[in-house]
Write a structure and sequence with these properties.
alpha+beta; 19 helices; globular
C-alpha cells in the first residue's frame, strides 16, 4: 500500500541527501520456494565477498555459536522450532551468562505457518510484592553511591525464564524436556570457549568492583567463577557443573524444580535477602507467565504484515509506527535507500516520534491504560510522519504520534535475541534478558544462576533516566506484580501469510532501532540477511537529543548536522539476529557486533 503526500522537498540540504541515493544490492526475500541443500558460494557482485548461505530444513541465529548449534541439534532430532528455541535459550544461559539466564525473563513470539496461528509469550520478570512506587525514592544511597535498582538484592525482579520455557513447551513442544535440555547441560558440564565479547563483560565487572568496592561481596561468585578473577583469555574454557546439574534436574522434574515445594525458591530468595533484597519464596511460587495476542500491523510496509510483541514491550508499537512512517514518507523523499542522509534523517525523525510515545504512554497494560489502538492508528501515524520536515529537525515537544501524557518523566548489556525457523515454517523470535551485564551481580552459587537487575527498567525515581538513559513516565513506576516496560522487540514479518523475515536484538533501547534498520535493509534496501545485519546503523531515542552514528555512517555527519541533528559516533547500535526466507532456502544472519554465529541444516 503506497500513500502520497503533498509535502514539498525544498532544501539544498535535502537535495544533497537525495543525491546520495545508491541502488539496491542483494536479493529481497521471496515466497517460500523449493527446499534445497545448504549451499555456500560467493556472491559475485558484492563489494566484498559475501558468503551465501541457504538452509533447506531449519535455521537458528543467535549471538553464540554453541547456542545456534544446540537449536539445530534439536531440529535434527525431530523437534519443532519451539523445542529448538527452548534448547537455544537454555544454552545461551550457559554461554552468555552475562546476557540472559534462569534468573531473568523475556518474550517469545511464535508463528505457526501451517495454521496461521500466532502467540506472544510474556515471561518477563515482575515486581516483588514488597516493592511499591516509592521504594527506590526512599532508599539511602549505597556507601559508594551505586543505584540500588542496578546492583544487589534490591535490583532483582521475580524471574520468569523457566516458567516461560515450560509454558512454551506445554503449548507447542513435541520432544521430552529431558532431550531438549541436553545440549545446555553438555555446554555447562564440558564448558565453552571464552570469546572477545565475554572478555568485555569481564572488564565491566572488573571496573564496577574497582569503582564500587561495596559491590565486591555482591559479585564475588561471578568474579571468582565466571570471570576467573580477571585472569582469563580468549579460548579459555568455562565450566559450570552446578548449572549442569540443575538443568538436568529441570529436564526431569519440569517446573517443580523451580517453584515447587522442593524447588529452589528458598535458595534464591535467601541469596537475594542476604544482599538487602526483598524476594519471598511466594513471589517465585506465584509468578505467572502471560500468553498475549501479538500486535498485528497489516500492510505495515508495502505488502508486509508484521507480528509484534505487545506491551509491556515498547518495541512492537515503536517498530510498527516507524515502518508505517517510513513507508508513508519515503516516496516524497525520492525513495532514498539505507545509508543515505535523506533516508537517515527520515528514519531518525520517525524514531523520535516513536520514542516520545514510548516515554509518555507505555508501561504494563495490565496495570495502566495504554492507548495501543491510538498509537497504532494509521491516520495518526501518517499525520505524525507528515509533520517531519526535510530541512530541519522537529522540536522536541512536537514529537509523538499522539498528544498528551507527561513527557519528562534511558550499548549492549544483559540481553540476548535469537531467531529460529523449522522445516514447516514455524517461526520463533525470542529475546531474553537479565538487563545489565551479569544482571544484579548476584548469583545463587548452588545452582550457578545469575539474578537479573530488571527493576531498573521501571521508572525507579520519577524524572530520572535509567541505565540506558531512557526517560520513562510515572505509568512505569514499580507495583507488586507489575512488569517493567521493555525494549525487547521480537518481530516476524509476513508476506502472503508466510514468514519473510524474523529479527530482534539486544542492546537496551537500541534493540528497537537496530531491529528496525535490519528489517528495512531487507525489505526496502533489498539486501541479503547477511548484508542487512552487517550494514552500519544509527540510533536516536528522542531524549537525550543526540543522533548516534556507527562509524560506517560517520560520512553522513555533515549533512545530518546541516539539518540540525546533534551528532555523535557510537559503538554498536544493537546486536541483531535475523533469518531471511528466500526462494531457495533460509538465510540466518548473526550479528558480528557480539561475535555471534548462526547454524542450519
Ligand atoms: N532489559 C532490557 C529491556 O527489557 O528492554
Amino acid at each position: 500500500m503506497r500513500h502520497t503526500t503533498s509535502i514539498l522537498i525544498a532544501s539544498l540540504a535535502l537535495g544533497a541527501m537525495i543525491n546520495g541515493c545508491t541502488s539496491p544490492t542483494g536479493t529481497a526475500p521471496g515466497d517460500r520456494g523449493s527446499k534445497v541443500s545448504p549451499v555456500v558460494a560467493a556472491v559475485a557482485d558484492a563489494p566484498a565477498p559475501e558468503v551465501r548461505i541457504r538452509h533447506a530444513n531449519g535455521a537458528v541465529a543467535t549471538d553464540s555459536k554453541p547456542a545456534s548449534e544446540a537449536g539445530v541439534e534439536i531440529l535434527k532430532a525431530g523437534g519443532n522450532a519451539v523445542d529448538a528455541a527452548i534448547a537455544t535459550a537454555l544454552t545461551l544461559s550457559v554461554t552468555r551468562p552475562y546476557s540472559c539466564g534462569l534468573g531473568g525473563g523475556g518474550f517469545m513470539l511464535i508463528f505457526v505457518e501451517e495454521t496461521g496461528e500466532s502467540r506472544a509469550l510474556d515471561f518477563r520478570e515482575t515486581c516483588p510484592t514488597r516493592v511499591g512506587p516509592e521504594f527506590y525514592a526512599n532508599l539511602p544511597p549505597s556507601a559508594s553511591g551505586y543505584d540500588p535498582s542496578l546492583y544487589g538484592g534490591r535490583a532483582v525482579a521475580i524471574p520468569g525464564q523457566l516458567p516461560g520455557m515450560i509454558a512454551a513447551h506445554d503449548a507447542f513442544g513435541t520432544l521430552p524436556l529431558e532431550v531438549i535440555v541436553a545440549p545446555a547441560v553438555r555446554a555447562a558440564r564440558a564448558g565453552f570457549a571464552v570469546d572477545a565479547n565475554y572478555l568485555s563483560a569481564v572488564e565491566k565487572v572488573r571496573s564496577l568492583r574497582k569503582s564500587h568496592p561495596d559491590l565486591r561481596p555482591t559479585s564475588r561468585w561471578i568474579w571468582d567463577r565466571l570471570c576467573q578473577r580477571g585472569v582469563i583469555e580468549v579460548g579459555d574454557i568455562i565450566r559450570q557443573p552446578e548449572l549442569a546439574e540443575y538443568l538436568e534436574r529441570f529436564g526431569r522434574e519440569g517446573i517443580a524444580a523451580w517453584s515447587g515445594p522442593e524447588g529452589i525458591a528458598a535458595l534464591l530468595t535467601g541469596v537475594d535477602r542476604a544482599f538487602d533484597g526483598v524476594l519471598r519464596p511466594r513471589d517465585i511460587q506465584d509468578y505467572k507467565v502471560v500468553w498475549r495476542e501479538p500486535l498485528v500491523a497489516k500492510d505495515v510496509f508495502e505488502d508486509y504484515d508484521a507480528l509484534l510483541m505487545p506491551p509491556p514491550s515498547s518495541g512492537g508499537i515503536a517498530i510498527a509506527q516507524v515502518l508505517a512512517m517510513m513507508e508513508h514518507r519515503l516516496p516524497s523523499a525520492g525513495d532514498p535507500l539505507p545509508g543515505t542522509a535523506a533516508y537517515s534523517h527520515l528514519m531518525v525523525e520517525s524514531m523520535r516520534h516513536a520514542f516520545a510515545d514510548r516515554a509518555r504512554h507505555l508501561a504494563d497494560a495490565d496495570f495502566v491504560d495504554v492507548p495501543v489502538d491510538r498509537l497504532l492508528d494509521r491516520e495518526k501515524i501518517e499525520a505524525a510522519a507528515d509533520r517531519i520536515q526535510f530541512n530541519e529537525v522537529l522540536a522536541t515537544n512536537s514529537c509523538g504520534v499522539i498528544e498528551g501524557g507527561a513527557a519528562d518523566v534511558l550499548k549492549d548489556e544483559g540481553t540476548s535475541h535469537f531467531s529460529v525457523i523449522d522445516n514447516q515454517g514455524m517461526t520463533v523470535a525470542c529475546t531474553q534478558t537479565i538487563n545489565g551485564t551479569f544482571g544484579s551481580l548476584l548469583a545463587v552459587p548452588e545452582i550457578g544462576v545469575i539474578l537479573n537487575n530488571e527493576m531498573n527498567d521501571f521508572t525507579t525515581i520519577p524524572g530520572a533516566s535509567n541505565l540506558f538513559g531512557l526517560k520513562q513516565s510515572d505509568r512505569n513506576l514499580p507495583e507488586p506484580g507489575k512488569r517493567p516496560l521493555s525494549s525487547m522487540s521480537p518481530t516476524i514479518l509476513l508476506r502472503d501469510g508466510q514468514t519473510a523475515v524474523t529479527a530482534g536484538a539486544s542492546g537496551g533501547p537500541r534493540i528497537i532501532t537496530g531491529t528496525l534498520q535490519v528489517l528495512l535493509e531487507v525489505i526496502h534496501g533489498g539486501k541479503s540477511g547477511r548484508a542487512a545485519v552487517d550494514a552500519p546503523r544509527l540510533h536516536h531515542q528522542w531524549k537525550p537529543e543526540i543522533l548516534r552514528l556507527e562509524a560506517g555512517l560517520a560520512v553522513l555527519q555533515p549533512e545530518l548536522e546541516a539539518v540540525g541533528h546533534d551528532v555523535e559516533t557510537t559503538g554498536g547500535v544493537g546486536v541483531v539476529q535475523a533469518i531471511v526466507v528466500h526462494d531457495d532456502g533460509l538465510e540466518p544472519a548473526s550479528d558480528p557486533r557480539k561475535g555471534g554465529a548462526s547454524a542450519g541444516w
